[in-house]
Design brief:
With 331 residues, this protein is of the alpha/beta class. The protein has 2 domains: 207 residues, DHBP synthase, CATH 3.90.870; 92 residues, Threonylcarbamoyl-AMP synthase, C-terminal domain (Rossmann fold). Helices cover 32% and strands 19% of the residues. The strands form 2 sheets. Strands 1, 2, 3, 4, 5, 6, 7, 8, 9, 10, 11 and 12 form a 12-stranded mixed beta sheet that branches. The protein has a 4-stranded parallel beta sheet with strand order 13-16-14-15, with helices on both faces. β2 and β3 form a beta hairpin. α1 packs across α5 and α9 packs parallel to α10. The longest helix has 18 residues. The relative contact order is 0.15.
Length: 331
């Protein structure tokens, strides 16, 4: 099919609404990454998301809403703690997991009895959802296992010919996916993001757990499969061992492989006469640039050496994505 790219305005939002209500899928911007959306209540439409992405069917989706009232259409239990989170941290780059209503199709939740719900901070995203008049089920708008798209151009690279419409909005300000917080029992972060445990604990007045068991089936999208992988090999150093990284770079170059070092700007000075791609000055900047950096580097190089030793919660969220991007291939 032809994939149209349309700037966000009244006309394109009407087109998006028409497509969604007719059972089609539409790519749209959020502040985290671009999403690929369908009417959450339309099983056939949701199936198209999995087909376009090549996404495993046992990987749940996030239901996106434009306002807090709509959450009641999706969740059958909203505790006082969950309401605190909704009131204080939504809209935002946060997804909460709640017990679902039977009206939410199993295909959305991978047959779980819970549903992941997010109210994006992006006004463009909420305008799209509001125009459609239904909650929107959406993962990231990329081929499965690829780096998530933070620009409409990246969506087009992966999904041209597979979807009818891309709403071209602003480049994503955050750059990594939302924090996922399970509120069905003890508050537990299932996926780290830009909304930190400290922020959540401040709202709830209690400690928040962090999920770490890879073998348990969890209520969260993005937990079970390799993600964010560039099309070329990549390795990761988490100790910022400049000597070790330099040695690998030299070895790759001597073997005829064009390598690049992906790191924060302050480490660039240690790699004179080597190809370096800066992720910015801060760990928050690194979150914004990571996925676009992986996509740019795969076009120019044969091997990516990622080097990152985080010191903040935001930084550890970036590290989480880096580990998945290299398939846990550590230096």
């Amino acid at each position: 099919m032809e994939t149209k790219i349309e700037k966000i305005n009244a006309e394109s939002l009407n087109l998006a609404k028409k497509l969604i209500l007719e059972g089609e899928i539409v790519a749209f911007p959020t502040e985290t990454v671009y999403g690929l959306g369908a009417n959450v209540f339309d099983e056939k439409a949701v199936k198209k998301i999995f087909e376009a992405k090549g996404r495993p069917s046992d990987n749940p989706l996030i239901a996106h809403v434009a306002d807090a009232k709509t959450i009641e259409l999706l969740a059958c239990e909203i505790s006082k703690k969950a309401k605190k989170i909704i009131n204080k941290l939504m809209p935002g780059s946060l997804t909460i997991v709640l017990k679902k209503k039977t009206s939410v199709p199993d295909i959305v939740t991978a047959n779980l009895d819970t549903v992941a719900i997010r109210m994006p901070l992006s006004t463009e995203a909420r305008a799209f959802i509001s125009a459609c008049g239904v909650p929107i089920a959406a993962p990231s708008a990329n081929l499965s296992s690829r780096p998530s798209p933070t620009t409409y151009q990246a969506v087009f690279e992966d999904l041209n010919g597979k979807i009818p419409l891309i709403l071209a909005g602003h480049d994503c300000e955050v750059g990594i996916e939302s924090t996922v917080l399970d509120m069905t029992a003890e508050p537990t972060i299932l996926r780290p993001g830009i909304v930190t445990a400290e922020q959540i604990e401040k709202v709830l007045g209690e400690k928040v757990l962090t999920f770490s068991d890879k073998n348990r089936k969890v209520n969260s999208p993005g937990m079970r499969y390799r993600h964010y992988a560039p099309s070329i090999p990549a390795a990761l150093d988490t100790t910022c061992d400049v000597k070790k990284v330099s040695e690998l770079y030299d070895k790759l170059m001597s073997n005829g492989q064009k390598a690049v070092i992906l790191c924060l700007e302050q480490y660039s000075k240690f790699f004179e006469n080597k190809e370096v791609y800066s992720l910015g000055k801060t760990e928050k900047e690194a979150a914004n640039k990571l996925f676009s950096a992986l996509r740019e580097c795969e076009k120019k190089y044969d091997y990516i050496i990622e080097m990152f030793c985080p010191k903040t919660e935001e930084g550890f969220s970036v590290l989480n994505r880096m580990i998945k991007s290299v398939g846990e291939n550590f230096i």
